[in-house]
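User: I'm new to structure prediction. If I give you an amino acid sequence, what do you actually give back? Let's try with this one:
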Amino acid sequence: MRELSLNSSQSIKIYDTTLRDGSQAEDIAFSVEDKVRIAQKLDGLGIHYIEGGWPGSNPKDLQFFQEIKSVPLSRSKMVAFGSTCRAGTLPQNDPNFQTLIAAETEIVTIFGKSWDMHALEALNISLEQNLEIIYQSVRFLKGKVPEVIFDAEHFFDGFKNNPSYALSILRAAQEAKADWIVLCDTNGGALPYDLQMAIQEVKKKITVPLGIHVHNDTEMAVANSLLAVREGITQVHGTINGYGERCGNANLCSIIPNLKLKMGLDCVTDDQLTKITEVSRFVSELANLPHPKYLPYVGDSAFAHKGGVHVSAIRKSPLTYEHIQPERVGNRRRVLISDLSGGSNILYKAAEFGIDLESNDPTVRRILEDLKQLEHEGFQFEGAEGSFEILVKKALGKHKKFFELMGFRVIVEKKEEEGFPLSEATIMVRVGDQVEHTAAVGNGPVNALDNAIRKALEKFYPELKEVKLLDYKVRILSTRDGTGAQTRVLIESGDRESKWGTVGVSENIIQASWQALVDSIDYKLLKEEDG
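Assistant: Good question. You get back a string of structure tokens that encode the predicted 3D arrangement of the chain. For your 531 residues, that looks like this:
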């Protein structure tokens, strides 16, 4: 393979299609307001082009283009997306083109078929007709908008099947004065060496600036995008978190840091790059999907360390197990606590809590032994750092007992076959020399217990009114014991400033939930006391 030299002054244009291609992913549906908010975040990230949608396909996208006009964007340019005109219809008479122009964007992207099989079988037109509608479409739009981008759909499949015809499609777009020609791996099946060879042939024939748009059906989308840049392509398409139809699109949250930090190419500023983790999580939130924790660069696990040997090494130099500083992409280093932990994990986490421990302190060994025994019993502290902090403070004698449980009772009653069960919890606690006895109902026994303990304690600790139960997970630890199996409950709680996880384990799910609830309350009160 020939050596390639990259020009570090080369500027790469980032083209985001989250609002169009990304919204075609299963389980994703953005509202108009969602799309406006995401566009503002993408602008802050420094994205050059934002493809807002296909105004000719649905009223929502047309409304978005109307509303985004009144939103000031500092760097990004909005793009309307559509197809070439239909066979037998002149562009000026095609309703799709009328809506593209009505969107009033400075840039329009249209796609056309570059795979001969698609022209013949999907469109049922001749190859000559396909060339003509591509030329006419680009030519017409160039007279209406300042910048036209042509997406050569299925280019790499088309090039493999009929190279001369695929290249003739690009020449037609070039002769019609397209500003960019984008090579698309629409099926996501191209391997890097196939893609590289095709781009090299394209560059011999086409002088218009080139872009790359690839899907991830072979897990090659990011690699293919970067390789395309090494071959001289200067516009890169993708979506936030790789959202998209089937297996998704090229993930910009990996592409942008790789271009900037690994390849030394100008695409966003250093300051903009620090926002990429925030943008990744924001888009997940509006998509109403869990943020993928294992994503490179932006995932919660991207800079998480669990093995004791690893943690010992990063305490000396983070370079030992981190390829970049997490802060450069707005992420953070995390040290996980588990039965794989060593003393270094304990020391690192203690320092996070503001607790000064020495490596030869016998408390470190005691905490580590307690931790491994608890994990053997079924506890898990990776997602329950609140419970772990309480464990450490108890071992150091720094934990304060805020209340004493005198007893609780949970009743679940169902009166009618079709009706919902009623859950009620009664609780008695002592705070200082005062006893509080109260009850509450809930939509389940754990919810009722949560409501009851809060009701009992809020008169003594009003700051608990800020605490919300954000997530509740139950895992059966041993299926062979059936309904009597050991159960682990993980609870995520939060207030206006932060989130924390707590854990409980028992054969009784109510008892496991109680343990996690108490730790959650203790953590909040300890946090408030520490100021």
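You can read the tokens as a compact description of the fold. Here is one thing that stands out. The chain has three domains: 13-287, 304-376, 404-530.
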